[in-house]
Design a protein that fits this description.
The protein is 83% helix and 0% strand. The protein is mainly alpha-helical and 145 residues long. Helix 1 runs antiparallel to helix 2. The radius of gyration is 29 Å and the shape is rod-shaped. It starts with a helix and ends with a helix.
Length: 145
């Protein structure tokens, strides 16, 4: 082997080694970028959920601070709104109001078997059960990340 062959062989080996190192660094960089993006998405989801809860709690607080209404229709609307807002939150956020006004899924499902329970209220219960399921999914997603 001549000195020029050895130099060429060394150059080829150095190029192959550099390419392998570049591939490893690139793979590590992509993994880090993916981890950062996942953390950013989790943080954004948590922030969006907190903003939703803040807005919902603000509306609920305003509803309760009105102290009711002399107009029975307005009073019913305010009560329905309060129940909906409580249901949109969670038992962790409002444990007493949740237990008193909403209850767990089993309590809600029990009303479906009651023939005297109005149909429109069953629809509202089904909507609440769906809402509760979405909230559980959101919280599970937040814990997963």
């Amino acid at each position: 082997m001549t000195p020029s062959d050895a130099i060429q062989l060394s150059a080829v080996l150095a190029a192959v080694a550099a390419a392998i190192v570049a591939l490893v660094i690139s793979a590590l960089d992509r993994r880090n970028a993916r981890d950062i993006a996942d953390a950013d998405r989790a943080s954004a989801l948590r922030h969006a959920h907190l903003m939703f809860e803040l807005q919902t709690l603000t509306r609920l607080s305003e509803n309760f601070n009105r102290g009711g209404s002399a107009d029975s229709q307005e009073s019913k609307r305010m009560g329905a709104e309060a129940l909906t807002l409580i249901g949109a939150l969670s038992p962790e956020r409002l444990p007493n109001l949740w237990a008193e006004r909403v209850g767990d899924d089993a309590k809600l499902r029990a009303h479906f078997d009651d023939p005297d329970f109005p149909e429109y209220k069953k629809w509202a219960l089904e909507a609440q059960l769906g809402l509760s399921e979405v909230l559980r999914d959101i919280r599970a997603e937040q814990r997963r990340r």
